Amino acid sequence: MNDSKNSITLPDHIAIIMDGNGRWAKKRGLPRSAGHRQGANAIQNLAIECDKLGLKYLTVYAFSTENWTRPQKEIDSLMSLIREFLEDTEKKFEKQNIRIRTIGRLDRLESDIVEGIKRTVKNNAQKTGLTFTMAIDYGSRDEIIHAVKQIIKNGIKEEDINEELFNSYLYTHDLPYPDLIIRPSGEQRLSNFLLWQASYSELWYSNILWPDFRIKHMIEAIKVYNKRERRFGGIK
Ligand code: IPE
Ligand code: IPE
Ligand code: MG
Predict the structure, then answer these.
(1) Which ligand 2 atom sits closest to the C-alpha of 187?
(2) Are the C-beta atoms of residues 191 and 169 closer than 8 Å to each other?
């Protein structure tokens, strides 16, 4: 570990909106799918680095509920990459203690991808290092509506509904709220990612395009985070 890594205090949970793959490819005269491929490599390597660093939770936005509006060719290339990613995660993360999970809807994904998710989650359930959560067909509004429907279905009484109960119905129920949300590519918005959970998250934006994002950028973000004063509405 080098000095720059030693001088940081890690937050518990970092979430990333992996954006800019298309622009990365365009800059190089490549098809957008090439950007997505590089993006997939970047997250695989970053997850390994985060586990080595000792981070507890890393959550990444891989495919949003709105990304279905993209051209079919692009959706197909993204789904192929997700499929590939899931296919040999055991091999990819062989030496790591990474627990992989997903959040999001499963009912609109191809059945082999759903199988891949279930297999991956099961095969990695015993790991005790980094909890690596991929948001696939995830959207916060959809997650909140799903939670409301479940609460009604379960006949929960009005007086029993509070923040803790509501949170227990979200896909992220077993994750702490993110401390730090990172969005590369220059956009400064959440794009329907973890809206409830991000209430008091610190946000860090950068112009780096996702395929170029490395652990050094994350360390830069953590250093900025370390200087922030989180007040949660109180007074320090
Ligand atoms: C992020 O890159 C990947 C997904 C949204 C699935 P984009 O595909 O959004 O790339 P840009 O924003 O067009 O550059
Ligand atoms: C957010 O990026 C979704 C993911 C990174 C998976 P988008 O590229 O879809 O978001 P907008 O359209 O710029 O808001
Ligand atoms: Mg984008």
Answers:
(1) 13
(2) no
Tell me the whole-structure pTM to 2 decimals. Answer: 0.97
Q: 193 CB less than 6 Å from ligand 1?
A: no
Task: Write down the domain spans for the chain.
Answer: 2-139+178-226
92 close to 44: Cβ distance less than 8 angstroms: yes
Q: Which long-range contacts (CB under 8 A, 24 or more apart) does 80-89 make?
A: 81/36, 81/37, 81/40, 82/113, 82/116, 82/136, 83/110, 83/112, 83/113, 83/116, 84/40, 85/40, 85/44, 86/113, 86/116, 86/117, 86/119, 86/120, 87/116, 89/120, 89/123, 89/124
- Tokens 């954006």 correspond to 19
Q: pLDDT of 147-184, one tens digit each? A: 999 999 999 999 999 999 999 999 999 999 999 999 99
Q: Domain 2-139+178-226 classified CATH 3.40.50.12240?
A: no
Tell which one of 185, 192, 208, 210 to mutate to probe ligand 1, the residue whose CB is within 8 A of the most ligand atoms: 185
CA distances from 192 to 21, 23, 128 (A): 18, 20, 29
